[in-house]
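Predict fold of Acyl-CoA thioesterase; 144 aa.
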Amino acid sequence: MTADLTAIAGVFDHHHTVTPAEIDELDHVNNLHYLAWTQAAAKAHSSAAGWPFARYRELGATWVVRSHAIEYLRAARLGDGVVVRTWVTEMGKIQSLRRYQIVRASDAEVLATAETRWVFVTIAGQSLARVPEELRAAFPVVAR
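Predicted 3D structure, encoded as tokens:
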């Protein structure tokens, strides 16, 4: 069973239902889709916090991935409802660490855990940029 993170401020839930296109020859979700789910959850969380990509474009800077780590624990199957729970656990001057917990909605079993190290860069030159205070304030750091 999963630790209940739903009541913690700063934790965002992104819902998804497994589609036929995500199923591999072993009859479960291919591992690459878990990665796609984490990115979709991060983007949805950012938009919900008032930072859709259009706002980053206006700022002239955005987040890019430096590294991903995923631990697969249980299989997701066709039709499963999954919740990709995400939160920011570190926010530095030019980088952040975002964690994820992918949970099967029907029984709250943790299917995978993951984390992504993001760096903030200028859109034009892809050079490192300082995270503005207004952006930092939009994402409370959750120490989990």
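The CA atoms of residues 16 and 23 lie 14 Å apart.
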